[in-house]
Amino acid sequence: MTTFRSNIKKALLLLFIVSAGMQGCKLDGMPGDRYTDAAIWKNASSVDLYMYGMYDQFKTFSFGQFPIGYSNATDALTDIEKYTSNTTGNGSVNKLMYNPGQVNATAPGISFWETAYVNIKRINEFLNGMQLYAKINAEQKIQYEAEARYIRAYFYFWLARINGSAIILDKLPASQSMARSSEEAVWNFITQDLTFAAAHLPKEWPAAQKGRATQGAANGLLARAWLYAASVAEYDNKQFNKDPLTGMPAAKKTEYYQHAADAAAAVINSGVYDLESDYGKLFTSNNSKETIFALYYQRPGVTHQLDYFFCPPADVDGGGATGVPTAELVNEYEMSDGRKFSWSEAAMAADPYKDREPRFYASILYNGANWKGRVLNTTPEDKIEGYIDFKVATDPRKTVTGYYIRKMLDETNTNILVLGSNQPWIEMRYAEILLIHAEALTKLDRIPEAKVSLDKVRNRVKLPGVVAATPEAMMAAIEHERKVELAFEGHRYWDLRRWRKAHIVLNNVRFHGHKVTDNGSGFTYTEVDCDKENRYFPSSFYYMPITQDEIIKNPAMKQIQGW
């Protein structure tokens, strides 16, 4: 039987045929009769090819590269990661956070609008064509509709967290002139699609079709979406944007948190997923019980470049060290017994990488770490992998913080240029669901139940349970766990935005690294500024502008207020 992944190649060819000639993002879209070819709709196998083509769009988001176009890019806008380059391209992340004044409707900086609507229209074309012409039974049609609506909801989820208000297209548009709907309507539309998907998708697919959306994936994304909606309802309160269509009703926050808790509980109670005992290995496994939705790769034809861009530079000629961990993240990892790490404690400061919790060793490469048969030397004396001050070289391909990323990299890949990378991109996993569950229950003042889910995440890495007794203390513990557990998975930036903390945590600040010096009898560790100028996050960034070209194309749509 042909596998899901190999079918993607066929799907791309068909997708190219049906979308040939489509330019821009006018809302009139493609004519519906492009899906009327009888051969296309004659059986489920043919319909599968179109479905696989739609799934292929998830590659746009793999390893956190979208919406800036570089892996881990949004994490590098935060306190957990530093991009090492200071040039346009590899260093665009730095330029965006140092100079937010360059962001405007002509150059939004972070944008998904045009790409989203190209894909949303393709999905609606598919749904329309399937209902009119497909020679498949009603049960098959419902399953395909559920998959298509899951994918459509995912695209709208990105629009909602970037722009808030968006144009809702649940069918082929009759006109290219359509107004934006309210943010509340957008989140409701997302959750309606996902509720339908959860009701009609299978719990699991046969092995040959691994990678397709499941009931768990739909409920998981539903939980994530409700949590975002609830956060905006609680924390925004129209403080940051006066557009009448942005923001969520504060009175509904409890309702939204309850929906998030319920959707997360559906995943937890399904019995399909569990935490892996080995935190580090789950990210390179194609068969993890923790994976809820992932993109899978297969050498030699379908690979990616995560190892090339993020490995320590001695691993590969011309690559490595695009982004590196900050001291702020490194300091967040606890000791193995659950004590907080502190540089002010002499014993910890003397040997800072000893006896840390397992996620530290699975996520961070540091001076003295074993990697691919060698011991890393991040002192400035090492000319290949040693520390270099940020901005000394425009594109140094070396650490500017004293650390390298380990998480998600394939330690067995010793010929990166030839092999590429084939570890999966895990878009959603069980640990995130437990953290969503814990946060939603905390907001509902159900602290003991929230602790159960939060402590499962901690207990997996042999850490003691949290001792928080109030919602405020629990939220601090949850933020810590999300920062550490989900590091480099593309959540931190969006968490700070939905909590409306980004303008506090990321504004008018600099982040740091640790310069390690060999003093002959041991090492000394000096905190260094890895930014060399202040970062900024203006509160206007909570709702990014729509590209001006899209405003011009659509006479009925007005720009988000403030841009």
Description:
By secondary structure, this protein is mainly alpha-helical. Helices cover 39% and strands 7% of the residues. A hairpin with a 4-residue loop joins β9 and β10. α2 runs parallel beside α5. The longest helix is centred in the N-terminal third of the chain and has 26 residues.
Outline the fold blueprint.
Elements: H1 4-19, H2 44-55, E1 81-83, H3 92-98, H4 113-133, H5 138-163, H6 183-200, H7 215-235, H8 253-268, E2 291-295, H9 306-310, E3 323-325, H10 327-330, H11 346-350, H12 358-363, E4 364-365, E5 370-371, E6 374-375, E7 404-405, H13 416-419, E8 425-429, H14 430-443, H15 447-460, H16 471-485, H17 492-498, H18 502-505, E9 512-518, E10 523-529, H19 548-553
Antiparallel strand pairs: 1-3, 2-8, 4-7, 5-6, 9-10
Helix pairs in contact: 1-2, 2-5, 4-5, 5-6, 5-7, 6-7, 7-8, 7-14, 8-14, 14-15, 14-16, 15-16
What keywords describe this structure?
two-stranded antiparallel ribbon; two-stranded antiparallel sheet; mainly alpha; 10 strands; 39% helix; 563 residues
Question: Strand tally, please?
Answer: 10
Strand order of the largest sheet: 1-3
C-alpha-based Rg, rounded: 24 Å
Average per-residue pLDDT, rounded, comes to 92
Question: From the helix content, strand content and strand pairing, which structural class follows?
Answer: mainly alpha
Helix content: 25-40%
**Spans where pLDDT lies below 50 across 5 or more residues:** 8-36
Quick recap of the structure?
The chain has 19 helices and ten strands. By secondary structure, the protein is mainly α. Helix 2 runs parallel beside helix 5, helix 5 (138-163) packs parallel to helix 7 (215-235) and helix 7 packs parallel to helix 14 (430-443).
